Amino acid sequence: EAGVTQSPTHLIKTRGQQATLRCSPISGHTSVYWYQQALGLGLQFLLWYDEGEERNRGNFPPRFSGRQFPNYSSELNVNALELEDSALYLCARGKKGQEAFFGQGTRLTVV
Amino acid sequence: DQQVKQNSPSLSVQEGRISILNCDYTNSMFDYFLWYKKYPAEGPTFLISISSIKDKNEDGRFTVFLNKSAKHLSLHIVPSQPGDSAVYFCAARSGGYNKLIFGAGTRLAVHP
User: Fold this and answer.
1) Is A96 in contact with B104 (Cβ distance < 8 A)?
2) Cα–Cα distance for residue pair B36/A63, rounded to 1 Å
3) Which of these, A21, B51, B62, B72, has the minimum number of CB atoms within 10 Å of its CB?
4) Is A1 a residue whose pLDDT tops 50?
């Protein structure tokens, strides 16, 4: 099902730069979740947006931020990149009470 | 604070046998549990879920068992197939609209 598209699929940035990751909407799915999967670790919850508002955020510093647009697409922004931000960033779309559908992820590499 | 734990990082099973993946949780407010499968370079794919009002849910070769008193759930795959080789994540949520909390994952290898 999903149809969740993330862009870009790969992104290489240098330390200190900013990264912007994007997630496409799915009709009827107003919620978007962002997760980080660092090497060897599970999925760590980053942010949850619904109806254009941030509903919850995980234990990440403020340089991780995002937004959701009126068409329910979403951006994740990471400022002042650090080497340990290198990870797979996953976006998931969800409906209340149902499972979340994930995109293929954006592989961010900070050098 | 890990609210969802998958204590086995890896599991190796022979084709045709049963695979049992385990997951423990600490938050008694969790009321919905899910299993996802993830192949390399792909996002997680939903597999099966169970509500806290049930103790078993079955879908084809996949069955999820929930033991609320022990705060434990397990995923049974039978018979296991080589295509089942992937990383399996269990996840939990409290409230219908809340974020999913994931375990660290278990890498399943099904060999001929």
Assistant:
1) no
2) 29
3) B51
4) no
**One-letter amino acid identity for B105?**
G
Contact (CB<8Å) A99/B46 = yes
Residue pointed to by tokens 């423990």: B24
A60 inside 8 A of chain B by CB: no
d(CA A23, CA B42): 15
Closest chain A C-alpha to B82 CA, distance in angstroms = 22
Beta strands in chain A (DSSP E): 6-7, 10-13, 19-23, 31-37, 43-50, 53-57, 64-68, 74-78, 87-94, 101-102, 106-110
Q: Is the pLDDT of residue A94 over 80?
A: no
For B16-65, write each residue's pLDDT tens digit: 999 999 999 999 999 999 999 998 878 899 999 999 999 999 999 999 99
Separation CA B36–CA B62 (nearest Å):
12
